[in-house]
Design brief:
Helices cover about 50% and strands about 5% of the residues. It contains 14 helices and three strands. The chain has a three-stranded antiparallel β-sheet with strand order 1-2-3. It is globular and about 70 Å long. One of its GO terms (molecular function) is DNA binding.
């Protein structure tokens, strides 16, 4: 039977005796077929994992509504799943609920899966029809102060291999603005010492060249001398000479933040990325080159950085404050 000729009722329910493809009646089969389609499209492992996790989450939320077949999903089921997820605490014992950005990302994963089911003819009515994106709050972007950066840089014990490695990692994050996944994937062969450029692999398997400073070059060369020759070509390695994984990098940076007693800002690789963008703009960098360095496909996020940091608001306020000038 041609899957595109499946005759479903208007409500998405099946008629007695009707035969359907397994993707129409078995959620797990549908998920596996969708993930296979994603791999065939050569999506990154990270993206495939995102779809695997989000569709599993959707499956659990639908089972709670006694919905186990894709053909039975209705718009109300989707809305109930969104409402349930939005009102469920992220962690036990915590009062925090999922942010609008988190919900929007989750729903994008659900929508991609449901749209695929509809496009492939496994469901006739798309239950996501008419369901828009979550309106996100406009929050202040957290960045490090110069004093916090200096404190963080002074925290690792640079007389040890791991300490100097971590110091160099934080310098690299600040000097280049690369994502944590991009940093973890840098290989020795990706570093162009003559031109002071690093080739990184960003979202969607897109390569780009990111410049780095003379100051970082000095630190990187010293790190490479300490690193020595090992089997892996990955630049940043652990004490077992294996690639230093994303989770490990995140953990050590968080620990340095705790040791340095940094408060008021989350100590993470992504905060270094925001701080790079802030200082780049405040030091006179332009939006187009920043977009290229950060690897953004649109100017929207870069415009946000420009609007926030193109002038030193505190300095301007100090100069033009009505109270100060009375």
């Amino acid at each position: 039977m041609n899957k595109r000729r499946v005759n479903l009722s208007a409500a998405g329910r099946s008629s007695p005796g009707t035969e359907y493809p397994q993707e129409s009646t078995d959620f797990e089969v549908a998920r596996n077929s969708f993930l296979r389609y994603c791999r065939i499209r050569n999506l990154t492992d990270e993206t495939v994992k995102f779809y695997r996790d989000t569709t599993l989450d959707l499956s659990r939320l639908l089972v709670a509504q006694e919905i186990i077949r894709p053909i039975d999903i209705t718009r109300d089921n989707v809305l109930t799943a969104i409402e349930t997820k939005r009102t469920t605490k992220i962690k036990r014992g915590k009062s925090d609920l999922p942010s609008s950005a988190t919900m929007d990302k989750l729903i994008r994963g659900w929508r991609a899966f449901i749209n695929w089911l509809h496009t492939e003819g496994y469901i006739q009515v798309n239950p996501f029809s008419g369901i828009g994106v979550i309106k996100s709050e406009k929050r202040i972007i957290e960045t490090f102060s110069n004093e916090q950066i200096k404190t963080l840089f002074n925290t690792p014990n640079r007389s040890t291999f791991t300490g100097y490695r971590d110091y160099t990692i934080m310098q690299t994050l600040l000097d280049t603005g690369v994502r944590i996944s991009e940093l973890a994937g840098i290989r020795l062969s990706d570093v162009n010492w003559r031109e002071r450029l690093i080739k990184v692999y960003g979202k969607g398997r897109k390569e780009r060249l990111v410049p780095f400073s003379r100051a970082l070059e000095k630190s990187l060369r010293l790190y490479c001398e300490s690193r020595g020759v090992v089997e892996t070509d990955v630049l940043f390695i652990n004490i077992d000479n294996n690639p230093f994984q994303v989770r490990g990098i995140q953990q050590v940076i968080q620990l340095y933040g705790e040791a340095a007693r940094i408060t008021g800002v989350r100590v993470s690789p992504h905060t270094f990325r925001h701080t790079f963008a802030k200082l780049y703009i405040m030091n006179g960098g332009d939006a187009f080159s920043l977009q290229k360095i950060l690897g953004h496909t649109s100017l929207d996020i870069v415009r946000m950085y420009v609007n926030l940091f193109s002038t030193d608001v505190s300095a301007k306020h100090a100069k033009h404050s009505p109270l100060e000038n009375l």
